[in-house]
Fold this sequence. Notes:
Number of domains: 1
Low-confidence stretches: 1-7
Radius of gyration: 18 Å
Strand order of the largest sheet: 3-2-1-4-5-7-6
Protein name: Class I SAM-dependent methyltransferase
Shape: globular
Domain Methyltransferase: 83-176
Number of helices: 10
GO biological process, one term: methylation
Helix content: 40-55%
Bound molecules: S-adenosylmethionine
CATH superfamily: Vaccinia Virus protein VP39
Order of helices and strands: HHHEHEHHEEHEHHHEE
Organism: Mycolicibacterium sphagni
Largest sheet: 7 strands, mixed
GO molecular function: methyltransferase activity
Amino acid sequence: MMAYMASEITDIADMPRGGPDASCLDRLLETDRQEYLDRDDIDADVKRSIVTALDRIGTLFREHDRNAELVLREVADIADPTILELGAGHGALSRKVLEQHPTAHLTVSDVNPESVAAMAASDLGDHPRATVGLIDATAIDAADGEFDLAVFALSFHHLPPAQAAQVLAEGTRVAREMLVIDLPRMPSLLHIAKLAAMAPLVWWPFAHDGLISSLRSYSPSALRTLGAHAGLDVDVSTNPFDRQVLIARRR
Ligand SMILES: C[S@@+](CC[C@H](N)C(=O)[O-])C[C@H]1O[C@@H](n2cnc3c(N)ncnc32)[C@H](O)[C@@H]1O
């Protein structure tokens, strides 16, 4: 049987999305191409349409509810938890947490100014337990330990390895614990089948970004390597057909 050699990662920036032990095929199934959401040359209306589609599809498949359950589980023992949502996009996750937890305080943020303006103009802007703000997850403007929990949902794969490790360091600096919820990295043959099924829809900006997301998603071993690089304790629970969940804490 051929063994995949776990190569030494000397520079985290060079780590494959499949992790240090990624197979040759897995290493081919990644891209440096950016999603429309991350590109400065893409019209704000196109980006808005993607964020709106993420919100609608997340509502249809109850993703926001399931993500809110994960958030609520992490703060179950805290009376009045303070929660920082990074990369909130449309704010649906924070909205669910505010609905389901009567005393939680949410800081709802994104690095995209149009998304922040749209969330501030929505019900979140007037909510007595919510603050909406522009925050870059790689350089969080907050004091050490200011929050009980930082959460980053469906956004981690947007960042290349060095910045992704920086998000873990920053999230666990400003919060007692960081929860990352992201797309799975499928086994290579299934991944190829998924990409083939998505390819005809690539004209649709949401599918374009979905296809690139798939190629940029991190494997469990990549997530553990990023956590170790940031000097953190991480737990990764994963299922190749469902979301991956990483919980990071300072050692
Ligand atoms: C695919 S959307 C996810 C939106 C939402 N969290 C959800 O679950 O549907 C990715 C989000 O990450 C944001 N993002 C990308 N890089 C970021 C960074 N460095 N800091 C904060 N947010 C970032 C994007 O602006 C975008 O809103």
